[in-house]
Amino acid sequence: MNRVCLVTNEGADILKVVSDEPIRFFVINDHIPNDRVYELTPGENAVLHIGVEHVRAVLRGDPVGHIHDQQRFGTGHGPRKAPAPPGLKLVD
Predict the structure, then answer these.
(1) Which helix (H) or strand (E) holds 54?
(2) Which has the closest alpha carbon to 18: 44, 56, 45?
(3) Residue 2, CB-side half-sphere exposure with 13 Å CA sphere
């Protein structure tokens, strides 16, 4: 079975895509109408990395949650970060 992992930051930006085997990975972004469909390709400085070692590195043996889990965050997860304060301030 080929595993594909999508690694994002807190803003949901794609930081890395890793796969056991070669894949074609497309990003669809309606905010960029002239370049809406973009294909990520593997390479030295790329976001897409192919190889079992890359998948193992991002999974790290952490517990894997599932939509049907009894607990919202599954088991084995540490405490969540406190909500961020509002980023906008009123200006007179």
Answers:
(1) helix 52-59
(2) 56
(3) 11
